[in-house]
Each structure stands twice: as structure tokens, then as C-alpha cells.
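Justification of resources, computational component.

The compute hours requested in this renewal are based largely on the per-chain cost of generating structure records like the one below. Each record pairs the submitted sequence with a full C-alpha cell output. That output is archived, and it is also reused by downstream analysis tasks.
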Amino acid sequence: MDDGNGGERTAAPELRTLQQKVAYMVEKTFPGQKVSGRAFSELVRERGGSLSHSYFSNILAGKVTHPSEEILKALGLGFGVDWRFFKEESEVVDDVVAGLQFLAKRRTGAISGLAARGVDDAGLPPELLEFALSLLKEAQEEAPRPGPAQEGATGA
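The structure output for this chain reads:
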């Protein structure tokens, strides 16, 4: 499937169960890291939610399959995604996966710019504009800054 940028879009992984979704988010949010239940529950707490480390571990083990909406919201806080991603038959799964794939391509340099296509007289939706501006700011912060020697400073 074409991604609209001349490349192929990779198929979304099988994300039907809560366990699959949480394992996927752990892998994509903390690549190459082993995230403990304690570390994740602390992250959720820092972001204003509540999730016990043992409950998180039980989700990863597949022992919890139908948590409350409050638990789903806590997972969303911890991973920084819309909590509805974790609902059964969620309509936001594809959006979250596409967003993560976009960010991965952006980080590897496969995507270096943004172009607006099909923008009407109203312009970009506020959410898209905010996202594009955040990417621009992030790129500016990541760009190497010239040091004293590179700025043409003269030494005595």
C-alpha cells in the first residue's frame, strides 16, 4: 500500500487484545528498553493517573482482559496516546499506529519535511497545525548548534 509519499506503508500489526496493544506500545514507546511495572506506574502517577505496577504486569501477562475505563485512561496517560486506543475494537488503533510509524520515519530521517495537500480555505485543522509546529520545534532543538570555533570567533 502506498503511503502517499512514494513509499510503502507497512501493515499494522495484529492489535486486537489489550495485551497485544500494551505490548506494542511498550515496544514502540520505549524501544530497546525493559520497562518495569513499577517504572510505568510511576510514569502514570507523574502524569496525573493511577495504575498499580502489579495490575500493569497482569495486563502484559494477559491476565487482565476487560479493565475499567479508568485503567484505560491511565494506560493512555502513561503511553501518551488517546486512551480509546486500548478499548476493544477501537477506531483509533490505526491512527495511533500510523502516528508511531510517522514518528519512527521522522527520527530516522526517512521524512524530512511536511507538505499540506488538499487544504481548503479554512486552512489546516488546529490539531494538525499544532502537531506540525511541534515537529518543527523539535527539529530545531535537535539541529546542531555552531560552537565558538564554528561561529568565526577569532583567537588571540
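The chain has two domains: 18-98, 114-143. Residues 1-7 have pLDDT under 50 and may be disordered.
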